[in-house]
């Protein structure tokens, strides 16, 4: 007998692995996969189509008893293929297979933001500023020009130069 | 501007407006285009799926499970769909695009209670430059703030789904804990907030001696704010 004041240890009850519930699995994975796709398409219409395609293909696996990591790997590999198809079809480019080995974790937003910040830090000041204002803060070209005290046409040219320069530094490319 | 410049410019304009980029060779700018998409997606919350999309895809998957014969979207079909250009958004995509397109410049409403009363919500001496204070009075959740030397007040209820906004760490914007909508201290939605949200209603304020008062609805049996 324990005295009433003694803390009663709480035991985790182990009922064995829960029955696979594909919809819960879907809901666990849809956010991270969507963000992965969105970061490679930049618009929600494409991200929704591609995410849908990937999950439709993956449905049999959602229902099978595969490990989380295995499923994540499958989803991301399928997404890469579909994204590459879209790019090839639309822009005639062949996507280099990037970081094929890495399976993104479930906190891609924070690490992605960190990577982007690191990349921007490596740019000259005005290049960094123009990209921050345009892309991270969503300023229009006009607002960007006003904030930087340069002309609109200069801001237009500067954002293109900055983007091209940054693309040469981007380790993920 | 060269042709390549105009092409990259068009691509940037498309993604910053959340449109599908037009078809066309990427030339030497494929990496710059990919980076533009990545930068655009780096906003906290900007890259999240809409709850409507998550639910609609769940329904389609459920349908697939029910049918037992899962229609495998063939690559051809997907490409045909994507190739039908920006024209037809598929499924949930289209509704969202329209919603966003239709909500470009909504005007900012002002809270006008049918039966109003000036209610004290803060002390003037507490409202130093940059201060943002939450108040809760007469059924209204609000912020009273001093942005740039002027004391004003805003509704603290996110215009998306009614969650209560929070000041972010910098104290320079208001964030929604539910779907990451962001508002600047003038109540306007920040560019890059994913959910299409309308501006926060302004609450009228006045200084009465050292007391900041806000025009709030008359509520019976509401104890006065006493500081």
Description of the structure:
The complex is a heterodimer of chains A (173) and B (227). Chain A is mainly α and 173 residues long. Chain A has 2 domains: 22-91, Rna Polymerase Sigma Factor, Chain: A; 108-169, Winged helix-like DNA-binding domain superfamily/Winged helix DNA-binding domain (Arc Repressor Mutant, subunit A), CATH 1.10.10.10. Chain A is built from 7 helices and no strands. Chain A has helices spanning 22-41, 44-63, 68-91, 108-121, 125-136, 141-148, 152-169. The longest helix of chain A is centred in the middle third of the chain and has 24 residues, at 68-91. The termini of chain A are far apart. The model of chain A is unreliable at 11-20 and 99-107 (pLDDT under 50). Chain B has 227 residues and is α+β, with helices and mostly antiparallel strands. Chain B folds into 2 domains: 3-101, no CATH class; 116-217, Rieske Iron-sulfur Protein (3-layer Sandwich). Chain B is 27% helix and 22% strand. Chain B contains 5 helices and 10 strands. In chain B, the strands form 3 sheets. Chain B has a 4-stranded antiparallel β-sheet with strand order 2-3-4-8, with no helix packed on it. In chain B, strands 1-10-9 form a 3-stranded antiparallel β-sheet, with no helix packed on it. In chain B, a hairpin with a 5-residue loop joins β5 (166-167) and β6. The termini of chain B are far apart. Mean pLDDT of chain B is 77; it is low at 68-105.
């Amino acid at each position: 007998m324990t005295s009433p004041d003694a803390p009663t240890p709480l035991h985790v009850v182990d009922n064995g692995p829960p029955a696979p519930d594909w919809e819960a699995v879907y809901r666990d994975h849809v956010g991270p996969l969507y963000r992965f796709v969105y970061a490679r398409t930049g618009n929600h219409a494409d991200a929704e189509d591609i995410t849908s395609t990937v999950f439709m293909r993956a449905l049999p696996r959602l229902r099978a008893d595969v490990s989380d990591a295995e499923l994540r790997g499958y989803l991301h590999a399928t997404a890469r293929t579909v994204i590459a198809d879209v790019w090839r079809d639309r822009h005639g480019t062949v996507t280099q297979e990037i970081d094929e080995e890495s399976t993104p974790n479930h906190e891609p937003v924070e690490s992605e933001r960190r990577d982007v910040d690191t990349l921007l830090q490596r740019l000259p000041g005005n290049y960094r500023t123009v990209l921050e204002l345009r892309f991270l803060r969503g300023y229009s070209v006009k607002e960007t020009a006003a904030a930087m005290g340069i002309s609109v046409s200069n801001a237009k040219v500067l954002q293109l130069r900055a983007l091209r320069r940054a693309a040469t530094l981007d380790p993920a490319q | 501007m060269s042709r390549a410049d105009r092409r990259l410019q068009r691509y940037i304009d498309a993604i910053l407006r959340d449109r599908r980029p037009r078809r066309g060779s990427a030339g030497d700018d494929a990496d710059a285009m990919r980076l533009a998409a990545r930068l655009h997606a780096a906003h906290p919350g900007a890259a999240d799926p809409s709850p409507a999309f998550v639910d609609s895809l769940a329904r389609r998957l459920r349908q697939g499970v029910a049918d037992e014969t899962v229609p495998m979207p063939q690559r051809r079909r997907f490409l045909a769909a994507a190739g039908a250009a920006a024209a037809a958004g598929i499924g949930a995509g289209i509704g969202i695009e329209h919603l966003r397109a239709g909500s470009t410049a909504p005007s900012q409403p002002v809270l006008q209670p049918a039966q109003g009363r000036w209610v004290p919500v803060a002390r003037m001496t507490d409202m130093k430059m940059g201060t943002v204070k939450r108040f809760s009075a007469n059924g209204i959740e609000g912020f009273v703030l001093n942005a740039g030397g002027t004391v004003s007040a805003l509704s603290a209820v996110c215009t998306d789904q009614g969650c209560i906004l929070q000041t972010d760490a910098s104290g320079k914007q208001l964030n929604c804990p539910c779907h990451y909508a962001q508002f600047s201290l003038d109540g306007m939605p920040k560019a890059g907030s994913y959910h299409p949200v309308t501006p926060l209603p302004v609450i009228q304020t006045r200084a009465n001696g050292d007391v900041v008062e806000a025009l709030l609805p008359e509520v019976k049996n509401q104890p006065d704010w006493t500081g």
